[in-house]
Amino acid sequence: MEFAYLGPRGTFTEAALRRLPAAKGAAAVPMASIPEVLDAVRRGEVGAGFVPIENSQEGTVTLTVDELVGGDPLVIAGETVIPVTFVLASAKAPAEIATVASMPVALAQVRKYLARELPNAVVHQALSTAQAAQRVVDGEFDAAVCPPFAAEAFGLPVQAFDIGDNAKAETRFVHVTRPAAPPEPSGNDLTSLAVYIDHDRVGALLGVLTEFAIRGINLTRIESRPTGEGLGRYAFFLDCAGHLADARMGEALTGLRRICADVRYLGSYPRGHAETPVPAPEGMTDADFADAADWLAALREGGSPR
Ligand SMILES: O=C(O)C(=O)Cc1ccccc1
């Protein structure tokens, strides 16, 4: 199995991919951008892709979420979470740095550092932190904001370590495939969905949330993303605790299907970090649903239920 990932070598994505159990022994194929990774998966050129999706400091990696919500269908099959620390990589001393480059999600996390230490430097966007380091080596920019291992991979001196504005920043990365059955439940899973509501209907979002709340399903993330149809037209990206195979998740999904303009299932997969799973509340276990279904079937057959 080949994994395409956001490259070149030296990205945080590459480091996170090494921690993904499903990628053990797999060939890692660097791609220039997030859309290129996802398109290679869609075209079947690689079996899987690996891209950043969420940062604890900056929030959503919009390129990834928008592709999942609105692009040709893909599903998430796994995730990893790693801490991210940034360095200023350059052959020049900070006083001589006139241009600095990185990926927007990285630049946003060193905003205070750049304003304080390099107030006159012109900031440029790159497709990844390691691509910025590559372009410094090529002479295009003076400095890159990148992981320490990217500076090392590209032979760039580090002018400053730990320049992130939040020392506790973490990033979440996802393993994506073409639509496929999910991995078996692990006991601590997430299910991702994109939900399109009827935007003119008052209380439509409350209706969506109710489907989860009444079945004891915890949401770990809800994000609105523009559909591109105009102002006020948004889709919701949701991460829900639980697996597609859980009876209560199945019931919530069929409930959404009935009340939403559209629902896109985006995968059930084991959580990549140590969150304690929220157990099914009383009356919401698979056994409770099976018992209730048996009871109803017996009523419909005219028998006398237990
Ligand atoms: O550019 C990289 O190295 C990435 O993997 C994307 C990224 C950028 C900044 C923080 C986390 C991930």
TrEMBL record:
Source organism phylogeny: Bacteria, Bacillati, Actinomycetota, Actinomycetes, Glycomycetales
Cross-referenced PANTHER family: PREPHENATE DEHYDRATASE P PROTEIN, PREPHENATE DEHYDRATASE-RELATED
Pathway: Amino-acid biosynthesis; L-phenylalanine biosynthesis; phenylpyruvate from prephenate: step 1/1
Domain Prephenate dehydratase, chain residue ranges per copy: 2-178
Reaction equation(s) it catalyzes: prephenate + H(+) = 3-phenylpyruvate + CO2 + H2O
Domain of life: Bacteria
Alphabetized GO MF terms: prephenate dehydratase activity
Coiled coil: none
UniProt site (Essential for prephenate dehydratase activity): 171
Residue ranges of every copy of the ACT domain listed in the record: 193-270
Protein name: Prephenate dehydratase
GO biological process terms on file: L-phenylalanine biosynthetic process
